[in-house]
Design goal:
The protein has 14 helices and eight strands. It folds into three domains: 120 residues, Butyryl-Coa Dehydrogenase, subunit A, domain 1, CATH 1.10.540; 105 residues, Beta Barrel (Butyryl-CoA Dehydrogenase, subunit A, domain 2); 136 residues, Butyryl-CoA Dehydrogenase, subunit A, domain 3 (Up-down Bundle), CATH 1.20.140.10. A hairpin with a 2-residue loop joins strand 2 and strand 3. The longest helix is centred in the last third of the chain and has 32 residues. The chain has 397 residues and is an alpha+beta fold. About 5% of the residues have low confidence. The protein has a four-stranded mixed sheet with strand order 1-4-5-8, covered by helices on one side. It has a four-stranded antiparallel sheet with strand order 2-3-7-6, with no helix packed on it.
Length: 397
């Protein structure tokens, strides 16, 4: 009598996840751009990637991540917004804090790229971008504060003119990448001279600049690996050559619009990635009814396609950047709703025991909610978007 055939071992959760089409395209894009990074992140437990001493930012730096959006002619990756959106979703599904921190870096790089293009290249911005790509430098951003009623283009930093340039005081909190940054990009309201109006400007400040320091601020265990502590500037001297003037504060010029567009798309993609990591657990385990799983996929894939649509349009043409920004806001708030619904449903079908026994489930659910805290909030953007839909100029506050 022939011996019975040995039973085939059930596929492991990791193997089953690899076989699913969910997130396959995004992770393939990540592997193509940064070979080995996805595997390195997947090999570590979420608790290690989200710890204050997380190795995730070092992994991305080693892979060349800081130069992703730097133009190829300056030695960078020359990635499109569409590719960056896909990469951010893939990274968010593995390491939430890394995706959020990378968003802030890419936002700052995108702003420098727009400044360099506006000035025709060859200036200090182009030199800095080349250094960012070649030396794999991280940028921290001291731009809009999360203050109720404050303009997203306002600055909490105090600026005085002096013989050697600008003297800056104040602090930015929270400031992502506060422990890993090499350069700080800061929005400044520079006092006018001889009756001229104040001007909005962006300054680039090296970490080693005297008067620049970091002190603890972030108390939440959620997204602690973003390094979002307080960066303090005490009588920091910024030479004029490190300052780019962008016009009056009330004017939404192309540089501000371009940076804003990149931020909204990449932040939304990052949080979409975080909730995708949670939903993947439900899909891998086959939890819930078929209708539940289809709803989860349709919520997230619909939001992803909407984000990719705006990114693709922005890559093709920036002729009407104001409309692109408005569309990015509409899509961001659509994605935010989809993330909330999918996160709640995923946790529900994973069940109470998963919530109790697996701390990753509650962590990921909490992390998905932080998209609502990035400016502009849904509530603050409503009036401006409503006016734009009615044919008026987009104004944000």
């Amino acid at each position: 009598m022939n011996a019975p055939a040995p039973a085939l071992a059930a596929p492991t959760p990791a193997a089953r996840a690899t076989s699913l089409p969910f997130l396959r395209a995004e992770r393939a894009a990540l592997e193509a751009r940064f070979p080995g990074l996805d595997a390195a992140l997947a090999a570590r437990p979420l608790s290690a990637l989200e710890a204050k001493d997380s190795p995730a930012l070092a992994e991305l730096r080693a892979a060349g991540g800081p130069g992703l959006l730097v133009p190829a002619e300056l030695g960078g990756g020359g990635a499109s917004l569409l590719e960056a959106v896909r990469l951010q979703r893939a990274i968010g599904s593995r390491a939430p804090s890394l995706a959020v921190a990378a968003t802030m870096h890419h936002f700052s790089v995108s702003s420098l790229v727009d400044i360099a293009r506006l000035r025709g290249g060859g200036g200090i911005e182009s030199m800095l971008l080349g250094e960012i790509a070649q030396e794999r430098l991280y940028l921290a951003s001291a731009f809009a504060e999360g203050r109720t009623g404050a303009s997203i283009f306002s600055s909490s930093l105090r600026v005085e003119r002096c013989l050697d340039g600008l003297r800056v005081n104040g602090s930015k909190k929270p400031c992502t990448l506060s422990r890993s940054f090499d350069l700080l990009t800061a929005s400044l309201l520079v006092p006018g001279v001889a009756g001229e109006p104040d001007r909005f400007a962006v300054a680039v400040i090296p970490r080693a600049t005297p008067g620049l320091s970091v002190r603890p601020f972030w108390q939440s265990p959620i997204l602690g690996a973003t390094e979002s502590d307080e960066v303090v500037l005490s009588d920091v001297l910024v030479p004029e050559m490190q300052v780019a003037y962008l016009g009056e504060p009330s004017h939404l010029d192309a540089i501000q619009l371009g940076g804003f567009l990149a931020f909204e798309l990449l932040a939304s993609a990052s949080y979409l990635g975080i909730v995708s990591g949670l939903v993947e657990r439900a899909l891998v385990q086959g939890r819930g009814a078929p209708s539940d799983r289809v709803v989860l996929a349709s919520e997230l894939e619909g939001a992803a396609m909407a984000l990719e649509g705006v990114a693709r349009a922005a890559d093709a043409s920036r002729a009407d950047e104001e409309s692109l920004v408005a569309q990015s806001l509409l899509v961001r708030h659509h994605a935010q709703r989809a993330i909330e619904r999918a996160g709640d449903l995923a946790v529900e079908i994973l069940g109470g025991m998963a919530f109790i026994a697996d701390p990753d489930v509650s962590y990921l659910l909490a992390a998905t909610r932080a998209l609502a805290f990035h400016p502009p909030s849904r509530r603050s953007a409503i009036a401006g978007l409503d006016a734009w839909l009615g044919g008026e100029r987009l104004e944000l506050s």
